[in-house]
Batch of 2 targets.
Target 1
Amino acid sequence: MSFIPYGRQDINAADVAAVVEILQSDWLTQGPAIERFESAIAGYCGAAHGVAVNSATSALHIACLALGLGPGKRLWTSPNTFVASANCALYCGADVDFVDIEFDTGNMSVAALAEKLQQAEARGGLPDILVPVHFAGQPCDMPGIRALADRYGFRIIEDASHAIGACYGDERVGCGKYADITVFSFHPVKIITTAEGGMALTNSADLAAAMRRLRSHGITREAAEMVGPSEGAWYYQQVELGFNYRMTDLQAALGASQLRRLDEFVARRTQLAARYDRLLADLPIGRPVLRPPMTSAWHLYAVHVPDGARRRVFDAMRAAGIGVNVHYIPVHLQPYYRKRGFKPGDFPAAERHYAAAISLPLFPGLSEADQDHVVAVLAASLRQESS
Ligand SMILES: *Cc1c(COP(=O)(O)O)cnc(C)c1O
């Protein structure tokens, strides 16, 4: 059997045709495909505005800036995430701290957040922005987090890089019911892809306008956003310091084409996850835990193996050609963050999760035969472990 990756894009003839059509059109970038893609994603999720950018990392950066993050301000996120969820604070010159997770879901613990907020209020040091991360595709307890935001006055950027297509009960992630801004990633291992790419959704016209300026050098062509009058039809102004974080029309057309299959992708991932649940039921491992009414987009199927078994199980599965992975090395344990004062023991649930976690292959094109093979190799490596 050939190598089975942990994640993989699914590109069909319609996706290819959509990109070719742009190649033959007048606009490779800054053309009409961008707005079409933004409206399609915003419409799907139930948000008023979408701002397409070249990565979720860029989206997190301009979301932080649009919400006023800067030196002297604080952002808190989950340690169980990709480094980008924390780095966005440092790009802005702000401080970053973490809130521990629930071991079973891998999501930020609302109890830990409530406790940390209480302490921060007592000694001064409440966060300005919270970045909950919807681990593996399941939304965090956003009603619980929203209630705390209302009480303590922080803003919320959801890092929904794993979670396009997931729901909190009746509403889709990205609708803006709980967060100021929601960020998606369209990297090829994520749910839908634009190769590289990301988007920020918001219901605030002002935040959307700020993020549009920041994605393109801080430049505006809107008279209403200018200092003084416009000097003519050619005129633009740089009103703040922005970046070139633009998505191309090629990427936007690919994304819009992929979006048409998003429900199909999530349904297939959900079906494969349920099949893993059945096939793994008798093994001595922790399987993913869902908290209804949340539904998951199933970016990852991450299991917990017994204490001390992770390294050997991982190595045995890789040796057998199975592209297992680990999500995540806690961000606070990265050397760069240790230099900032974080240390082992700071976020014990995230560290315990990391010590046991293995992500099994999960993507729409995974065949049942390949999935059976993954399960057989996992079972054999766990047996070796216990003998
Ligand atoms: C993938 C990912 C990102 C970064 O996405 P890019 O589009 O590669 O910048 C950020 N946060 C999380 C949780 C991710 O999984």
Target 2
Amino acid sequence: VQRLRVRTKAQTDEYEIKIGRNVLCTVGEEARRWLGKEARKIAVISNPRVLGHYGSPAIRSLRANGFAVSQKLIGDGERFKSFRTVEDILAFLSQGRLERSDAILALGGGVIGDLAGFAAAIYLRGISFVYVPTTLLAQIDSSVGGKTGVNLVTGKNLAGAFHQPAGVVTDVETLRTLDSREVVAGCCESVKQGAVGSRRLFNQTVRFLRALDSSRDALESSQLEELIAAQCAFKASIVSKDQREARERRDHQSRRILNFGHTTGHAIEAITRYRLFRHGEAVGVGMLVAGELSKNLGLLSVPELESLTDGVRLCGPLPRTDNLNQDAILTSILHDKKSVAGSIQWVLLERIGRARIVSGKEIAPRLLKHSLRDALRKASTLRN
Ligand SMILES: NC(=O)c1ccc[n+]([C@@H]2O[C@H](COP(=O)([O-])OP(=O)(O)OC[C@H]3O[C@@H](n4cnc5c(N)ncnc54)[C@H](O)[C@@H]3O)[C@@H](O)[C@H]2O)c1
């Protein structure tokens, strides 16, 4: 079992992430420790699939530690990450008469975490929430940093709040029931964090991916717990220095570097109407584009680009990219919501472990076009 403490500048208190195997059944005692004696009620927010797999041990453990437990199920899928669902959750909490000292337990992937965390941030102007992330993406990414929120019809994650959990219990055993595409998507996100984090984190990630590539049994090795802990520690180190992603920051440690692969990734998701790519898969392709662009700008060497490409390849098969409309991707990139004063902020690489933020204004349209074309071609041949 690994225990990690996450601190953010804005918050003087820290929270703990407990990472291990079969630790789900300890969530009650941990929640009691984190929430204190006054907490009486806990509302478990989950979806039918995750609750079916993991609800019983979690709820049993909460009850054994004196909590009165209620359950609120949300539909499964990104489309439920909406204000409407949050309103439903708030009504549920209110009808159950949860008080300021009570709490929410989010049991699920990033969708449940973002929704339940947001409901916790605004119910009675803020109650505690404990998070049990059950996807690889949620375990290495959304469980750190305190971003919560919902999608608007105009785009993803456009409304929300920063609200840190009281604590996180990450049971790696839950990953065994994950669909293989969800594993691929989570692996892409871990390559992303390694690529902008450090050579050491990147190498550790690639070692795990190699093991996973030869057998899914790698999900049962202690290597996985160590990797998740290292990934969370990296994200925590970035977030603690720049919780709110300061607009003026463009250095290699600003929170913005976590958007590596996202500029093209978001565009690919948007032009395929969020139907063909999981977010992490689109980020996988987006990293290849950012890598190609970095090489073409003379920032990244060819061997370093090959390492990055190998990391993405090891994540597993990605959806087809050779039939994507490249002009539509380019147009969508220009509308990236992360633009600052109208110009896109590309997260590029100088080498593995060192990001550089480059304004879109500094990149010639032709170079971008060629880089996109070459990277999409490369992506489509990765698994052949
Ligand atoms: N807050 C943050 O910092 C942050 C960071 C990254 C992503 N996100 C958000 O996270 C969301 C994506 O999260 P996700 O990839 O976890 O998707 P998700 O929550 O939709 O989960 C993916 C699928 O896996 C299922 N599932 C979850 N756990 C399972 C398990 N253990 N076994 C079997 N099935 C399981 C879910 O029911 C769902 O169908 C996006 O909305 C994204 O915006 C937030």
